[in-house]
C-alpha cells in the first residue's frame, strides 16, 4: 500500500464531501412548485387598473357561507407615502402600500455587501490605492409586484392582498402604526423598536416587534388564513453559487423551522446538476418557530414572540428573489379580534448574538439559522478559540495564526511520532527499490512484498498520514466557518488582506501555500516510483493552489502557517536525529 496515494484520496474525499454537502444535501428536490403565494387571489385588468377578482364563497365549519365583501373600491384610499426611521443600527423605510419595509440598510462599518476584488485591483490596493467602501447591506430590497418585506396577507373568501393601502395612525421615533379596512377585515399593524446603540453581542438594537390585530367588522363569522411574508429581491448578476474552483459563493437561502426541522432552500443549481426548474418552492406544516432569509453573513428572521404557532410555512427561491412566509388559521365571530405578536431580527448572523436572542424569551432556536453542516461541532470549537485569541491580540488574522500554533502543539506528539517513522522509512528505500525492479510489471506482488518488509521492520506505512488526516476536518470546519459565520466577516489581517472571508485578491497567500506544500513534499521520504512522486510533489500542490485562489484568505493563511510550522519541525527533527545517531561528543577528540 502506498501512504501518499491514500493521503491524496483522503484529502480529495474530505473536500469533496464538504462541497457535496454544501451544494446538494441541503438542496433536495422541491415537493411541488407553488403557483402563487396568495392563494385564492387573482388580478384582472379593468381599464388599466388591477383589481381583485371575487373568489367563490367559503363554507364555514358550521355549514354557513362566509359573507363576501363588496367588490367596489373603498370611497377614499389612503395616500401612498414612505416613513423613514433612523436607528443606531439601521436606516428603515416603511411604505403605506402593504405596511412593510422597502429598505432596511444596516449602518455598521462591517455591515457591507463586500465583493471580491480583481487581481488588478488587489495589486493596486497592495501598492496603496484606495477604493470606495462597499455599499451597506440592505435586508429589505423590495420585490416589484409582490409586497414589501414583512408584508401581510389574508387569504380566503374575503382576501386582503399584500399590496393593500394602509394609513399611518401613529408615528414616533420608536413606533409606527398602520391601519386599513378591507371588506370584512380591519387590520392594524404596529412596529416598535428601541433606539439602543449596538454593543458587542447584544442583539436588541437589531430587533423590532411586530403586532398584528385583525378584526371582523362584518355581521357574520369569517375565516381565512393570515400570512406574514419575509421577502428580498436578489441581484442575479452579483449572486454566485459555491463551487470547487469558484469559491464559497454568496447565495441567499430561505428558511423555515417547522417542528424540530429546518427547511433551507436556494435556487436550483445550474449546469450538469440542474433540475430544469426555474425555482425551488416547498411547503411544510406543523409547529412553526421561525421563517426568514439567510443572506450568508446577514439574516432577516421572524418568529412568534411567545410560542410556536400551528400553521404552514411556504418558502420560494427564485433566481431574482427569496421569500419565506408563515401562515396561520384565522376564524373570527362578528366584532371579534385576534392579535398576533412577532419579533423580527434584521442584522449580522453572529452566533453569540442569536444565542442571546433565544435566551431573551421564546426559544425559537435561532442559532439553527447558522448552517455549519457536517462540521458543526468542530466549527463551534474553532469560533470559541478564535474569539479567545482575538480578544487577546485584537486581530482576527493573528488569531488564525495562534489557532494554527495551538493545533500544531496539540498534535505535536502524534506529528513527532509520524515524522520519526517517516525518517526511519528512508532506510527501507533501497530494499523497496529492489522489490520494484524484481516485479516491474506485477503491482500485486510488489505490494505484498512491501507489506512483508514493513512488518519485518515493525513500521506502519500509514503512520505518516495520520497528522494530515487529523488536520483535514479542521480545514473543512474552518472553511465552513469562514463561508457561514459573521464573526470573521469583513475582519482584516493587514494591508491588502482586509477581509479574511473573501479570496486573496493578490493570490500571494495561495501561491505561498503552494510553495510550502512543494517544500513539505520534498522533505518527505520518497517511497514511490517517479510517476507517483511527480503527482505528490508537483500536481497536488498546484491543484490546491488553484482551489485556494478563490477560497477565503483566512483558510489559505491557516494552511500556509501550518506548512511553515511543519517545515521547521521537520528540519529540527532531522538535526535531533542526526545528533542522536552521532552519539555524544568525545572531549578532546577534535583537535
Draw up the topology in text.
Layout: H1 3-25, E1 43-46, E2 49-52, E3 82-86, E4 90-95, E5 100-106, H2 119-126, E6 151-156, E7 167-172, E8 175-182, E9 185-193, E10 207-216, E11 222-233, E12 253-258, E13 261-265, E14 280-295, E15 298-304, E16 309-318, E17 321-332, E18 337-348, H3 351-359, H4 376-393, H5 396-410, H6 412-425, H7 429-438, H8 443-457, H9 466-484, H10 508-523, H11 530-548, H12 553-582
Antiparallel strand pairs: 1-2, 3-4, 4-5, 6-11, 7-8, 8-9, 9-10, 10-18, 11-17, 12-13, 12-14, 14-15, 14-16, 15-18, 16-17
**According to CATH, what is the topology of the largest domain?**
Beta-galactosidase, Chain A, domain 5
Alpha plus pi helix count: 12
**CATH top level of the largest domain?**
Mainly Beta
Q: What is the CATH architecture assignment of the largest domain?
A: Distorted Sandwich
| Percent of residues in β-strands | 15-25%
What's the gyration radius in Å? Answer: 31 Å
User: Level of helix content?
Assistant: 25-40%
Order of helices and strands: HEEEEEHEEEEEEEEEEEEEHHHHHHHHHH
Count of all domains: 2
How many strands?
A: 18
**Uncertain residue segments:** 24-75
How is the biggest beta sheet arranged? 13 strands, antiparallel
Question: What structural class do the secondary elements suggest?
Answer: alpha+beta
- Return the average pLDDT rounded to an integer: 81
The N- and C-terminal alpha carbons lie at a distance of 49 Å
InterPro entries: Membr_insert_YidC, Membr_insert_YidC_N, YidC/ALB3/OXA1/COX18, YidC/Oxa/ALB_C, YidC_ALB_C, YidC_periplasmic_sf
Domain Membrane insertase YidC/Oxa/ALB C-terminal: 396-574
Protein name: Membrane protein insertase YidC
Subunit structure: Interacts with the Sec translocase complex via SecD. Specifically interacts with transmembrane segments of nascent integral membrane proteins during membrane integration.
